[in-house]
Amino acid sequence: MISVGIIGGTGYTGKYLLEFIKQHKNIADYTIYANSSAGSKLLDIFPELLGVIENKTIQSVKELSYAHDLYFVSLPHGESLKYIPTLLAKGIKVIDLGGDYRLDTKKLYDEWYGFEHTSANLLSQKVYGLADLNSSKISGSNFISNPGCYPTSILLALIPLINNYSDNIISISSVSYSGSSGAGKSAKTELLLSELDGNVKAYNINKHRHQPEIEQELTKYGMKFPFAFTTHLLPIARGIYSTSTIHLNSAISEFEITEKYLNEYANSIFVRMRKVPPELKWVVNSNFCDINISVKEKTVVITSTIDNLIKGASGQAVQNMNRMFGWDDSLGIQKIIEN
Ligand SMILES: NC(=O)c1ccc[n+]([C@@H]2O[C@H](COP(=O)([O-])OP(=O)(O)OC[C@H]3O[C@@H](n4cnc5c(N)ncnc54)[C@H](OP(=O)(O)O)[C@@H]3O)[C@@H](O)[C@H]2O)c1
Question: Inter-axis angle of helices 210-220 and 149-165, to 10 degrees?
Fold first, then answer.
């Protein structure tokens, strides 16, 4: 049995971490740390969890204890840097849900996040926690950087293809759609219902922070061709839908490509290969990533979909914790599978 702390446990991703660790049989106790809500009761923040969680007092992150075996860190960009180096120096395990350690170089942080990374030495120590593909590295790690939500949907959809057919690929374009919870719970005018309702728009074209993250990881699997990434906001709260179009030099059959994916994910209970393009509704409130492959001559279209708050954040983080401790992949997230 272990004890966990959640730093930033009162946000959108924090709520699901809380639910999952409450139903996890190997977690004995937990503490929630936050900022402006410190001193409040958990049920004042999450009244919907009455009967599910204890009504604990939220602790201030300024008085962080180092008493837990593992900390989930779920803070806005730049904030994790203040806590993670000390936690790791004390030999405590960390899973960071934010982006502060996902990229591999200090230069990429200057360029894409606009801050100077103050613990760049740790960038090479983290394991990028794409739970369904990096499993052996995760098992031996003390420090997991949980992937971003868009990257999770795209990397699971593209890595088996690139790993097997990199030399045959001319280019890839991924077009993704997200609901508004991807931006967290703090108020923003563009996320008001009156702005979102009846609307769809592209945003952060060529400057989304998830682009270097996706490119970094795809390069590790052999990407050496142009990659384009475009994000859109949908008038919904939850979910990510990504459509990736791949142009090939020479045709490969749909059957052959699909077989490669079925082999790759044979032991991954949370990746489901679909015979038809998946629908967002099939994965919302679950830890699944659903993928379909469709091939016409030299064009491959791969559709993939996840729940951004679960597979794209807290569900995958719990899966990573299970791997770190050598537990069954689905502990704590079983109920979500049954939904
Ligand atoms: N939302 C998603 O779909 C998603 C998916 C993948 C990864 N992520 C990443 O996960 C992290 C959290 O996202 P979220 O959506 O859960 O955000 P959120 O809903 O905005 O919650 C942020 C949390 O951080 C705390 N916090 C804010 N400023 C702080 C500060 N200066 N010091 C200490 N605590 C502070 C908040 O506490 P108070 O309320 O008490 O201020 C709250 O608990 C972000 O890095 C995000 O990029 C999010």
Answer: 30
Report pLDDT for 132.
Answer: 96
- Beta strand 271-274 with 127-128 is unpaired
Q: Is the dihedral of CA 124, 129, 134, 137 positive or negative?
A: positive
Which among 214, 217, 221, 216 is positioned nearest to 173, based on CA atoms? 214
Q: How far is the CA of 133 from the centre of ligand 1 (A)?
A: 26
Going along the chain from its start, the domains and CATH numbers come out as: 2-147+311-338 (3.40.50.720), 150-307 (3.30.360.10)
What pLDDT is recorded for position 336? Answer: 56
Please report the DSSP string for 28-51 in residue order: EEEEEEESTTTTSBHHHH-GGGBT
Contact 251, 297 (CB under 8 A): yes
Q: Look up residue 98 and give its two tokens.
A: 């934010």
Q: Which residues line ligand 1 (CB under 6 A)?
A: 8-14, 34-37, 61, 74-77, 79, 97-99, 148-149, 181-182, 184-186, 308-309, 312-313
pLDDT digits (tens, 9 = 90+) for 189-226: 999 999 999 999 999 999 999 999 999 999 999 999 99
